[in-house]
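Onboarding guide, step 5: your first structure request.
Type a short instruction followed by the sequence, for example:

Predict the 3D structure of this protein.
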Amino acid sequence: MTTTIPLETEKGHTCKLHPQSMCPAFGSLRILTRIEGSHPVMATDTGCLYGLTFVTHFYGARKSILAPQLGSAELMSGQMVEGTRAAIEVAAREPGVRLIPVISLCVAETAGMPEELLPRRVGNAEVVLVRVPAYAIHSHPEAKDVALAALLRRLGDRSSPQEPKTVVLVGEVFPADPLAIDGALRRMGVEATVTLPGRSLDDLVRAGRAGALAPLHPFYKQTINLYREWGIPVVGGAPVGQTGTYAWLKALGAALNLDPNLVEQVASEERARAQSLLETKPLAGSTILVTGYEGTELAYARLLVEAGANVPYVSSSIGQDPLVFPDEMWLKARGTREVVYRKALEEDMDALDRYAPDFVLGTTPFAAEAKKRGIPAMYFTNQLASRPFFLSGGMAATVGFMQQALGMGERYQTMQKFFQ
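The system replies with structure tokens like these:
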């Protein structure tokens, strides 16, 4: 695994053609290895195989990844397809295998893997080719979208009767959040929720029959486009904060043609709970920078602003998208000066110089630089995105955690003075 160093253009701007992170393909592997009954096969060169296998196991894959021997000799002699087919046969012999995702990476010889030369099914296992051209994918969240869309396109059941009051929630979120959302939606009249990406292969099949898609994370673009092809309504936004939660519940109720009085009751109850949490402005007086590569940075910034914080700068590794635009406009109307997509570390560092924050959420190197300056900082992914976030319960957990973190400012400055 290598970290790409941004190239400076002639005008002095940072080149953003490639991600400043580990190979984004690990995002695809992260969800493919977690599916029960899935046995992935990877078609790539030895170097990519080693690096991605290592990082995937680091994130708790707990299963092997099969791969054909594809060194220089094999690639030069054109044995790629034969080797991949042989690996698929081995995977199919594993007990309980129902899915064999074949991950084709951006190595020149494997990127053009011909799908028609691979079997569609071996034994009891469906074989699905997942093309992950990592050089063209700027973040690991977006690589998750590539894998999920490939699975849904192949496995989503479109032949059975639709389940008009079933909602598909898309987003890798804290495990308690889908349960809380399901509870609220059932009070509105929703009969079932399916959360993707997940561990169940049956959920992928059922997802094709749903009445609506609710992408809790906005970067699942290919998945969203697939549902639009299917003619299934897509409800943007997420149940975050006071205004966001109310609007999201109302929009979902309208998309599913639920009883408007019942929807209004549930949405108003959630808004009232949120208002009671936020009316004291628990984060008032604090300046916070929100940066990361998760793709949820704008939603977190909205919640912090509602809690009274000043958030002048937000950056994300995901690209601009119509689903993100309402959050961007909402933030800019409430004091956020900059929203940066496809961000580079250099842009975050520059914001740190300009805004003098009380607290920083960001990637590991950015958080490290803030701490070096005596500014409290936390790694966005492990310390914030791994906690409840949605509806009033998630709001309380997130705001309470941020209050606690802001209280560490004096301690950080004491440590900085000591080491100086």
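Each response can be followed by summary notes, for example: The CA atoms of residues 312 and 336 lie 4 Å apart.
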